[in-house]
Amino acid sequence: MTAKIIDGKAIAKEIRAELAKQVAELTAQGRTPGLTVVLVGDNPASKVYVRSKQRACEEIGINSTVHRLPEETTQAELLALIDQLNADDTVHGILVQLPLPGHLNEEEVINAISPAKDVDGFHPINVGKLQIGTASFVPCTPAGVVELVKRTGVSIAGQHVVVLGRSNIVGKPAAALFLKENATVTICHSRTKNAAEECSRADILIVAVGRPKLVKKDWVKPGAVVIDVGINRVDGEIVGDVDFAEVQEVASAITPVPGGVGPMTIAMLLKATVEAAARG
Ligand code: LUD
């Protein structure tokens, strides 16, 4: 069997087209959605992602502002900017691109963002609401993963989902989202006794560990759906956490890297911003 390749780029484009209509309606009501992204320092990958976010906003009519701050920005300066954005009625969504330079306190920065503008869903209030099942903002990458699986026509309820990775940005929220979709969820991580064996029991396998081509053919049950969240730069090339060439032979469907989850992350950010503006 050769797996169906899940085209995240195409699905993200569809979502942007749907959102463009909602943006036009909100704009007609004098409520153009506004997203402000804060980028501190010169991380090359972050620069690429922020540029893509800005372009996607412009494409569908969201007002986008990017604050590009120097590496040596102080914690106090960053917190003052967030206060100012919290108070600005034209700003519906605030996103501080991570990772921050090492001298800045990420947790304190996230806590400073108004939960009502936290389009990333990283504020503890929103993390808690996700666990309860009443979230209004959920982290964009795992939201994109669930949307990708749904739009591929895969039913989730009752399926065994294995999430490999337990980060606050992807693994943990992905597990919560799939649980909300009535999956049976297993989380594996670097201390899991036999990760390969656990993964091979998955109907839907979500991989988010940041280790190039970690997941091999024998980690995957024949017919499983495999979602690769990893983006690793190896010898100038981008590869995922899944050995695509091998796993493609056993999976029923698989996401490519690039062109899989990445574009969905941005589509979900736009969706969150539109929803924030609609809420007023
Ligand atoms: N921080 C994110 N840091 C990193 N790939 C992203 C991402 C687009 N606060 C905050 O945007 O949600 C976030 N909020 N994240 N990420 C990762 C994470 C953050 C990663 C990849 C892409 C956003 C993307 O567009 C493309 C693809 O996979 O096809 C291109 C990949 C490339 O580098 O060319």
- Bulk shape: globular
What's the CATH topology label of the largest domain? Answer: Rossmann fold
Q: Give start-end ranges of low-pLDDT stretches.
A: none
Distinct small-molecule ligands in the complex: ligand LUD
Q: Please identify the structural class as seen in this structure.
A: alpha/beta
Major sheet attributes: 6 strands, parallel
Q: Reading side by side through the largest sheet, how are the strands ordered?
A: 1-11-8-7-5-6
How much is the average pLDDT? 98
Number of strands: 11
- Report how far apart the termini are: 49 Å
Please report the number of helical segments: 10
Task: Explain the layout of strands and helices.
Layout: E1 4-5, H1 8-28, E2 34-40, H2 44-60, E3 63-69, H3 75-86, E4 93-96, H4 106-112, H5 124-132, H6 140-151, E5 160-164, H7 171-180, E6 184-188, H8 195-199, E7 204-207, E8 225-228, E9 232-234, E10 237-239, H9 244-247, E11 253-254, H10 261-279
Bound molecules: ligand LUD.
